[in-house]
Amino acid sequence: MASFFTAIFDPLINRRKIKVSELLLSGLTIIGISLIFHFDSSFKIGIILGVISPAFASLYTIYNQKLVRTYDSKLINYYQMISGTVGLGLMLPIYLHYFPEKSIFPDLKNTIYLFLLAGFCTVFI
Fold first, then answer.
1. In the prediction, which pLDDT does 118 show?
2. Which of 3, 20, 70, 89 could form a disulfide with 26 if both were Cys (CB 3.0 to 4.6 A apart)?
3. Nearest-angstrom CA–CA distance, 73 and 4
4. What is the 3-state secondary structure (H, E, C) of 93-105?
5. Residue 89: pLDDT band by 50, 70, 90 thresholds?
6. b/e 51-72 (16+ beta carbons within 10 angstroms → b)
7. How far apart are CA 125 and CA 121, in angstroms?
8. What is the DSSP code string of the chain?
């Protein structure tokens, strides 16, 4: 879905011509998602969030390209991390209201998985 939204948003924001080939190829993902949604709608919220999230990811990528040309990338990264932390911290009570959990802290097994994910997927790659 990110490629679909990038194919739409990038030409609109940067005032370029829309490439039909990019729209057609990324349109295949829309067909796949609609098939999944049609046959099993029990994951409705997850599918909707899975469609909204790539839209924001593509907007982030497009605008980040413009910002990096003007400002220092370390400063941009600093503000992005601070705003993400504050934003998620403010949204946590709302999330916990609708999706209550026994504990918001991960257990030992999930902590190990988080360290493996952070170590191998961010540091080494």
1. 86
2. 3
3. 26
4. HHHHHHCCCCCCC
5. very high
6. beebbeebeeebeeeeeeeeee
7. 6
8. -HHHHHHHHHHHHHT-PPPHHHHHHHHHHHHHHHHHHHH-GGGHHHHHHHHHHHHHHHHHHHHHHHHHHHS-HHHHHHHHHHHHHHHHHHHHHHHHHHS--S-SS--HHHHHHHHHHHIIIII--
CA distance 108 to 106: 7
Q: What is the pTM of this model?
A: 0.63
- The amino acid sitting at 11 is P
Measured distance CA(111)–CA(117) in Å, rounded: 10
Q: What is the DSSP letter of 71?
A: S
In tens, the pLDDT along 102-123 reads 888 889 999 999 999 888 887 6
CA 106 – CA 65 distance, rounded (Å): 35
* 28, 7 contact by CB (below 8 A): no
The tokens describing 56, both together, are 């924001």
- For residue 124, the model assigns a pLDDT of 66
Q: Name the token pair of 89.
A: 């911290």
